[in-house]
User: Which sequence fits this backbone?
């Protein structure tokens, strides 16, 4: 195995890690193959080129992989690919208790989840299981944190 093959294996490993970070979600096959290729390249450099070059190759591979995993998510292109906030943070923690007893008009059909307009505000709501068409008047029955439950005023 020549130095060219060692470098090719190392470059392949870095490209696979790049693909894992930039294209493939999660840490899957491309990431594992990239790590294996980097390890194989370092081992091949150690056996073919000697301990000095094996150590240098292994160190450079680890540093390059770390830099790539750190820099790419912070780059402009990387920020478009990486989720910055968890879904749990996206859930509204707004106090909706002021809606209790208010009436609004459905903006979307409630099957059983949809949107209702209260004045100028649109709120995600749910029914107690029934289907309600859009443009129907509904009344807020219960509010539990971000969960707002509505029903038609004529239902008992």
Assistant:
């Amino acid at each position: 195995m020549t130095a060219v093959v060692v470098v090719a294996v190392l470059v392949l490993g870095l490209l696979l890690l790049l693909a894992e970070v930039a294209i493939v979600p999660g840490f899957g096959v491309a990431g594992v193959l990239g790590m294996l290729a980097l390890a194989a390249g370092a081992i091949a450099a150690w056996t073919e080129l000697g301990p000095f070059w094996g150590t240098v190759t292994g160190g450079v591979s680890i540093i390059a992989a770390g830099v790539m995993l750190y820099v790419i998510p912070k780059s402009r292109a990387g920020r478009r690919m990486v989720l910055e906030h968890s879904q749990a943070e996206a859930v509204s923690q707004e106090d909706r208790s002021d809606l209790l007893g208010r009436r609004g008009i459905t903006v979307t059909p409630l099957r059983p989840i949809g949107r209702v307009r209260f004045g100028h505000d649109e709120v995600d709501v749910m029914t107690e299981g029934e289907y309600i068409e859009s443009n129907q008047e509904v009344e807020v029955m219960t509010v539990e944190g971000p969960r707002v439950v509505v029903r038609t005023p004529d239902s008992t």
In short: The first strand starts at residue 103 and ends at 106. Residues 51-74 form the longest helix (24 residues).
